């Protein structure tokens, strides 16, 4: 015989129910046929002989009903009714099937149906969007890679490599004549090329003599070039001016290169200073400290 | 301590302990012990000979006291080193050459895919591949930087800093758009590169670099991202000047193509006025990115100061067309093959290495 109260008395309060999950503030019921999910007198499927639920399977909603007449036949206890896909029609179906049933169960069934349809809609929407694929990381591998990275970083000696590369580029002359101090480098280059290019340079010097007068007018630009690069710590100087001046003086720079080379070779005075002729006074000041600047 | 020394069996160790103690006594004025007094007589005899000499069966490991054992070991090492140095000096020119320690770089097996600078085939390939347009100065780079969905603050800041480092770079918020739809739009607006920074747990961890007019797509793992704030001794913010680019150790075919990919990110003519340099350094298949400002103090010395963000990349896959994870044709995928370590020879099979 079905004595709901007795059953509830036992499993609800006094004794043990295997579906019950207790938390600090509430009790939940893990029974799959439970309509609200809470452990209550009215929600317990074991302690109510007349009970109904709505459950969803593969996107379809079904209404399950249990009546006292079938309490003795556990295999046939739950009657499964497929509900319509249309939400409104499904509600009507519930009303139809649960006519004359207690208000609580009817109401809760409809609520549950609403919730289910809402989440089904959301699932369908999300699958159409891009989905995030979770790629599992092997912890061992990650640890190994991290260690390898550290060692590679040490082996790389980045600062040295970068400095070396920059100095190589300077020696090769990719920077053109922007940097004026590489007298030593040009010295070395000169020593190698002395025999070959001596005559050429002499000729060039003569040409320069005649050409320097032309350049005198543009000494201003050269001055700023000089000051810019020999000052060397002034990052905030007028880069625009310098760059424009550089563009203007590109051709001159090429000629200057040869002059600069010869600088290292011959004593830097007189004809070579042609460009600096205008600035002679200042240039002399620079020549002396120029030799000092190697130390500084 | 003294009693311990006494209890350890061999006379050898006793003597040794005593020699030490004697020396210490001189320094620390320890209370004289009977054993010490006894030993002193022996000590003087020994010293008259030539310092303490131990019977040949003695080894450092027999001393039970850890501290003493350690210090004796260090002394032993020091002596050996000095001896070796003396011998070396004595031999002069005839001395055997100094041994070079083995490193992974030394022990690498030569990779056949290394590019020879004069290789015609490579030169031909490079003349006709996707980057030829850039290297022939037909196009200027224009980079679009974006992230995965819903980026967190760190990733956003990283993107912004990247945009300052790479000229002509624009950061756009992702807003849940599919990359397949983003790409044709980018192409129509004249972008040459698409950079997507993937984020996981509030930290950027992946980078997809896609060359746009159907160029190759490279997928990297990003690690060790350091933003500007976190850099020690950093300089001021990078200016708008076009930086120079340094690519180190991209020697194999694969490395070469990746190197070109990085090179094509930056405009052709660096503004040397700006004195900024972006470095991609490949070491053991890790690509380290750094951004510096340099200054030549004289022709032999250059000072560099780190600005800008730093991060490391590891190539995970290289795909031929634009980004298409399902139907794309993968040129190279990093395979996690279980390899055998051979003690003295390193087989970098699993690297498909980017350099020798």
TrEMBL record, chain A:
Residues 260-276 have a biased composition (Basic residues). One of its GO terms (biological process) is maturation of LSU-rRNA. It is found in: Nucleus, Nucleolus. Residues 189-277 are annotated as: Disordered. The keyword Metal-binding does not apply. InterPro entries: Mak16, Ribosomal_eL28/Mak16. Keywords: Nucleus. Pfam families: Mak16 (PF04874), Ribosomal_L28e (PF01778). GO terms for cellular component: nucleolus; preribosome, large subunit precursor. Residues 6-119 form the Ribosomal eL28/Mak16 domain. Residues 193-209, 217-255 have a biased composition (Acidic residues). The keyword Cell wall biogenesis/degradation does not apply. Belongs to the MAK16 family. This is Protein MAK16 homolog.
UniProtKB/TrEMBL annotation, chain B:
It comes from Cyprinus carpio carpio. Residues 141-324 form the Brix domain. Residues 14-26 have a biased composition (Basic residues). One of its GO terms (cellular component) is nucleolus. Residues 1-101 are annotated as: Disordered. It holds the Pfam family Brix. This is Ribosome production factor 1. May be required for ribosome biogenesis. GO terms for biological process: maturation of 5.8S rRNA; maturation of LSU-rRNA. Keywords: Ribosome biogenesis, rRNA processing. GO terms for molecular function: rRNA primary transcript binding. Residues 89-101 have a biased composition (Basic and acidic residues). It is found in: Nucleus, Nucleolus.
